[in-house]
Each structure stands twice: as C-alpha cells, then as structure tokens.
Amino acid sequence: WFGTLFIMMIQTSYLTPPMAPGIFYLRGIAPPELTTHEIFRGVVPYMLLQLLAVVIVALFPQIALWLPEKLIGWN
Fold first, then answer.
1. Residues 2-29: b if buried by 16+ CB within 10 A, e if exposed
2. 56 is in which domain, residue-wise?
C-alpha cells in the first residue's frame, strides 16, 4: 500500500514544478510557438486527477490491496 502511494507520488512529481522532467521533455519536442507556461496549463487537469487518486488510495487502501489479496489469498 505504501509502495503504491510512493510510486503515485513519484509519477506526479514528473509533472509538477520545480523539476518536472516530463514537462521539459515535452518542451524539447513541442513546436517552438508552444510556451512552457501553456504546457503547464495543459497538464494541470492531469495533475489534479493524479492527486485525487493519491488521496483516494490513501483514504481507502483496499483499492490498492484488493488484487494482492485475490492473488495471494490473504484473509
């Protein structure tokens, strides 16, 4: 459960400032007329969805644990 939250936060960090390697990679392949500010504005809905998913998994860990429970047979 903690590992799932950790990976979700790492994934979110690839889209958020100040580092945002995913954004800077996209900036390198985007057309020159597209600014970094516009790219950040376009990513905001995805960041919000990602953060919502992190909150949901933190509040309801059963979401992240149901598959291991089914595969391993925990009770």
1. eebbeebeeebeebbeeebeebeebeee
2. 2-72
